[in-house]
Design goal:
The protein is an alpha+beta fold and about 220 residues long. Helices cover about 25% and strands about 20% of the residues.
Length: about 220
């Protein structure tokens, strides 16, 4: 494979046939949430909801949500691809199809999906395709994955509203964020979980557009 082909592949999603084979065994975090001490894997309280969000490097993205009132617990992982039970190193090759994501478990009586999406839209640039700032590759693409049809409608409406907000602010670029039903969420390795709580001076590449979203 030539260098140019490898470079192109980094910015193109693989087909199911091209994706890495993965494995039967899943990564299961051994530790509780480093900040809240709650279980990352559940069971979660009855009536709580989940949304899975990709907005670039998951280290900084996760911190946004564990600091949001009404969020019960957060965890980082991989979603949107083909390879079963991928590892971080595999995802970084661009050959699994996954993007880095944050699982957000929240109490809908305390915080709405629209409020969480406001945090999402305002803290990254959803028009950058297969990158986020200096982080390049399919694993950094913007995505919203939901588990209920009514949440899908909320997310699609939110995307359209933020697109209009960008247009009103003079930004012509189109939003590239995927919005779809969640197929599967795979937990990332323990050392990625709550990374910036464990490493306060660690890397965070998040940068919004400066455009406000009506939550």
């Amino acid at each position: 494979m030539s260098f140019m082909t490898m470079l192109t592949k980094k910015f193109a999603l693989p087909s199911a046939e091209e994706a890495l084979p993965g494995r039967d065994e899943s990564i299961v975090p051994e530790n509780a949430h480093f900040v809240s001490r709650r279980s990352l894997t559940g069971p979660f309280p009855e009536g709580y909801k989940t949304v899975v969000l990709g907005m670039g490097c998951f280290w900084g993205a996760e911190r946004l949500f564990w600091e949001t009132d009404g969020v019960w617990v957060s965890a980082v992982g991989y979603a949107g691809g083909h390879t079963p039970n991928p590892t971080y190193n595999e995802t970084c090759t661009g050959r699994t199809g996954h993007t880095e994501v944050v699982l957000v478990v929240y109490d809908p009586s305390k915080v709405t999906l629209n409020t969480l999406l406001k945090v999402f839209w305002e803290n990254h640039d959803p028009t950058q395709g297969m990158r986020q700032g200096n982080d390049t590759g399919t694993q950094y693409r913007s995505a919203i994955y939901v588990s209920a049809a009514d949440d899908l409608s909320v997310a699609e409406h939110s995307r359209a509203s933020f697109q209009q907000a960008l247009k009103d602010a003079g930004r012509a670029a189109a939003i590239t964020t995927e919005v779809s039903m969640l197929d599967a969420f795979y937990y990332a390795e323990d050392y990625h979980q709550q990374y910036l709580a464990k490493n306060p001076s660690g890397y965070c590449g998040l940068k919004g557009t400066g455009v406000s979203c009506v939550g």
